[in-house]
Amino acid sequence: MTQALVASNFPIPSALGSLDAYIGAVNRIPVLTLDEEQELARRLQQDEDLTAARGLVMSHLRFVVHVARGYSGYGLQMGDLIQEGNIGLMKAVKRFDPDQGVRLVSFAVHWIRAEMHEFILRNWRIVKVATTKAQRKLFFNLRKSKKRLGWMNHAEVQTIAKDLNVPVSEVLEMEARLSGRDIGFDAPSGDDDDNAPPAPMQYLEATGADPSISYAADDEEGNQLELLREGLAKLDARSRDIIRRRWLDADSKVTLQELADEYGVSAERIRQVEANAMKKMKALFAA
After folding, report:
1. Looking at CB atoms within 10 Å, which of 6, 163, 195, 266 has the fewest?
2. How far is CA 54 from each of CA 37, 62, 68, 283, rounded to the nearest angstrom?
3. 3-state SS of the chain: helix, strand, coil percent to 5?
4. Quick one: DSSP state of residue 204?
5. What is the CATH number of domain 3-127?
6. Quick check: 84 and 117 in contact, CB under 8 A?
7. Alpha-carbon dihedral of residues 235, 239, 243, 245, nearest 10 degrees?
8. Region 153-157 average pLDDT
9. What is the pLDDT, as a whole number, of residue 11?
10. Closest listed residue to residue 112, CA positions, set 94, 95, 90
11. Burial code of 255-276, b = ≥16 C-beta within 10 A, e = fewer?
């Protein structure tokens, strides 16, 4: 069975489970080769084959997760970002032309980011405008506490701070936030204009690597971590403990002598056990 068929027949990861379970599921879906991607794209383009569309979407769900992680600093739920990115991925799959000489991942990144950006723009100001207890109190009470339009004077600020039992500095900061206006930095678009291209901001030069290279690197990193877990699982308990404490615990690495004292053997014996364990794990990576 080809990877394309595996991807198209892989069960859709449940959105009702935990986020970790979803990410684990999409990371197990095989990545398509160029030939498989081209075949599925042409089937979708020429025959409107929904099974082919499903295969293209499923095999790129892990890339949406990869992109979503880059927006984790906005205080929004990762699951919501992934969901929005998946919508962008489906729009990209619908419009992908396999004869343009680019991989789907390079084409889809613009659509995925566009959906995530729109979601962030709709929600970021609401999330960030009140992040402390005092700010939330001001957010819901400041407007009705003001006696007039425009900026408050010193006496009004002092009065509101006293009435709401919050610091004067918080009153001034919240007034500035509520009085400010959002400035859009992307092109306006219709509510449901599926035919509209990504906003011009999506075509700005990225500071990172090419999406296909980044995607491949992320996939390779995941494979290496999986191999590492498998390798550790195949070691005996003592060897696994030595490798973990000597090489994987960055904050508390131990010496050979410390392990030797703990296990009641010589430091040379610990070194031999470590070398043998490393040899077994390297063989797994080389396979």
Report:
1. 195
2. 12, 14, 21, 37
3. 70, 0, 30
4. S
5. 1.20.120.1810
6. no
7. 130
8. 80
9. 44
10. 90
11. ebeebbeeeeeeeeebeebbee
Average pLDDT over the chain reads 75
Q: Which amino acid, 207?
A: T
Q: Is residue 203 a contact partner of residue 164, using CB atoms and an 8 Å limit?
A: no
Distance, CA of 15 to CA of 107 (rounded, Å): 25
Q: Is the Cβ–Cβ distance between 25 and 88 less than 8 Å?
A: no
Inter-residue contact 78 to 53 (CB < 8 Å): no
Nearest to 73 by CA among 15, 23, 135, 128: 128
**Paired tokens of 175:** 């007034």
How far, in Å, CA of 199 to CA of 203, rounded? 8
CATH topology of domain 234-286: Arc Repressor Mutant, subunit A (1.10.10)
Tell me the per-residue pLDDT of 130-150, one tens digit each, with 9 for 90 and over.
556 666 666 656 655 665 555
Tokens matching residue 243: 């490798």
Mean pLDDT within 215-227: 63
Which two three-digit tokens encode residue 249? Answer: 């615990």
Q: Tens digits of per-residue pLDDT, 31-67?
A: 888 899 999 999 999 998 999 999 999 999 999 999 9
Report yes or no: 96 and 104 within 8 Å, Cβ to Cβ.
yes
Pinpoint the alpha helices (H) of 129-210.
133-145, 154-164, 168-179
What ranges do the domains of the chain cover? Answer: 3-127, 130-179, 234-286
- Mean pLDDT, range 154-173, rounded to an integer: 81
Residue type, 227: L
Tokens representing residue 136 in the block? 């939330």
